[in-house]
Amino acid sequence: MTFRYKAVTTTGEVKEGTIESQNKDLAVVALQRRGLIITSIKGSEEKSLLQMNIFEHLPQKEIVIMSRQISTLFEAQVSALKAFSLLASSAENKLLQRTLNQITDDLQAGFSISGALAKHPKVFSDFYVNMVKSGEETGKLNQTFGYLADYLDREYELTNKTKNALIYPLFVVIVFLAVMILMFTLVIPKLSQIITESGQDVPLYTKIVIGMSNFTVHYGIFVLLPLLVLIAYLVYLSRTPKGKSYLDNLKLSLPIFGPLFRKLYLSRISDNLDTMLSSGISIIRAIEITSSVVGNKVFEDIMKASSEDVKAGSSLSDAMAKHVQVPQIMVQMVKVGEETGALSTILKTLAHFYRREVDTAVDTLVGLIEPVMIVFLGVSVGILLSSVLIPIYNIASSIN
After folding, report:
1. Do 60-153 and 164-400 fold alike per CATH?
2. Which candidate, 362, 335, 366, 339, places its Cα nearest to that of 350?
3. d(CA 154, CA 328)
4. Considering the chain, what is the average pLDDT of its residues?
5. Assigned CATH class of 60-153
């Protein structure tokens, strides 16, 4: 809950601001520990539009850097309260700065670190909070934040590389469509006017191009509107459970990108499980948390089902073997890890293997798409221009 307060410092300076806390008493305690004398404090359930910045975003790289800094500060025997206070004062991202200030206040009010982090689910995932909780229980917080920084760094690099591989072909397609629209609406109509006014016979392919141009000019809006409706429907669909499940299934079924996405999610699952098991989190809890952060409804359901099977006494390998989306090589390696007691090591190997597979697939994909897209764009524009320029050339030749 948000509380708006007015207070006075020991030097008589008047201070106003807001503070996040579970209740009014804890908010007062947190402010008093800052050396403030409270003159008024009121709870506010809703934030104004000015306070709620919907465009605020916290890049994952910021969380990676913050985790690395906390690990270093803990290794230097700096207290948690001092560490978060220092990071809050030096944070450049406003959302991160505000979050760290609220965490500092909660720590002053007696919250555990994991409890304070859990109040900010948009910044710290369930996976992150549970890792920190495990670090508190084992007394290895500096190592835990180091694990988190390493994991998030790997995840950021892998996800970013995959996104970049998809952005390039999308950009080329958008440029291609923009060029075609400009050609059909601005260039072709002017050239077609010259051809039709000449009175000469027009080749069939030129008639087709002129017809497409006329259709785009006069009826293009009727094509654009259904396309916008389709995009809006897909956005809506992606926000419903059934729609998300359908789209995630479709994503894995794509001819070229499907295997890439599959390897990405398998890498994420292996890396998540390895990181959590290395930190002492139980296998069942690790599987449950992984299901919530894998980022695909298909694999989320697989991990949830596997969690239930493991609770019922099944091994993780047997639980995974029930699902066709999980490759046999992964099932067999997990089984070896369970039999030898080296499951975490096997999962680390699997995560490294699938990361390398994703890297190779992305490099191959980009290497193939780039020349194909350029050739396709060039040939399409060339055919379009030649279909109207050749008749014009014939007209010019006949005049001479």
Report:
1. yes
2. 335
3. 25
4. 83
5. mainly alpha
